[in-house]
């Protein structure tokens, strides 16, 4: 449905008589299949917003090809591009609603611009209002709506022309966690019921974990890792991907306990270690095996497991009790079995 081939974007500015170039998106190849929900995750300034705007040519790529539903947008004239964009809906972080128009009229706007008959507009808008759960607010103005309701209006407006693709530019970043969950559920419903391919960008791995089929990680304008959500969570390759996955866990030790940890080991203290399990390592009884083989014990302080894309993963913080040599051997054993470890201190 979406194919990017060698797409890049370089901005050129002039200051003090000098020309400055900044490459926001490096040469990128990406394929998104029909019906997928594909996430692109990256930190602020990584180039993800520029990349998604290249898909509908709101930012015209400096190089490359952009195919949407088999059409190379880069070859179209203005009239052809306008027509092609009707198959590409887009929603934004800040909603971009017109405050002078009612909910109904905001959703109707794209249809009015294409001179759609009034009867058809009324039917279509009412259907969309029902889809996004706002049938009782069609006469309301944006100023009277909550953030979640505004985003629902923006989603309905983006669907007004029955697009095959929906682009989501940080669509949940301005919302509270409960509202974010409701909007993500709505996007998943739209994907399934309307067979709309969704490309979303975010800086939150929780968003990816909740609804995406595949994900790509972008850093400094470059896609550094991509695959199914299960693959990325099971075997993250880059440190950035690992950090994003860690962010989905809300696990820590009490501050009072952390303050008692010593950075160095003494004769009567033992290491407190963070263990990160992914893929097959989650289901293996590795702690039991380490205990029997190396004569160590694990005092589990806190733990959290999750399940994403058919893959389990989790974090456990535990105190490893045993002599120094035994603990070192046990740590080496766990590392060999794809468990990431970090010594937090000694207690």
Low-confidence segments, given as residue ranges, are none
Strand share of the residues? 25-35%
Shape: elongated
Query: What is the ordering of alpha helices and beta strands?
Result: EEEHEEHEHHHEHEHEEHHHEHHEEHE
Provide a count of the helices. 13
Strand order of the largest sheet: 6-7-8-3-9-10
Sheet with most strands: 6 strands, mixed
User: Which structural class do you get from the secondary structure elements?
Assistant: alpha/beta
Taking all residues together, what is the mean pLDDT? 91
Short description:
It is built from 13 helices and 14 strands. It has helices at residues 48-55, 78-85, 103-113, 118-131, 147-158, 177-194, 205-211, 229-234, 239-246, 255-260, 280-283, 286-294, 324-336; strands spanning 2-15, 18-32, 37-41, 63-68, 71-72, 88-92, 165-169, 197-202, 214-219, 222-228, 271-278, 297-308, 311-321, 340-346. Helix 3 crosses helix 4 (118-131) and helix 3 (103-113) runs parallel beside helix 5 (147-158).
Describe this structure in words.
The protein has helices at residues 48-55, 78-85, 103-113, 118-131, 147-158, 177-194, 205-211, 229-234, 239-246, 255-260, 280-283, 286-294, 324-336, and strands spanning 2-15, 18-32, 37-41, 63-68, 71-72, 88-92, 165-169, 197-202, 214-219, 222-228, 271-278, 297-308, 311-321, 340-346. It is of the alpha/beta class and 347 residues long. It is elongated. The longest helix has 18 residues, at 177-194. The strands form 3 sheets. It has a 6-stranded mixed beta sheet, with helices on both faces.
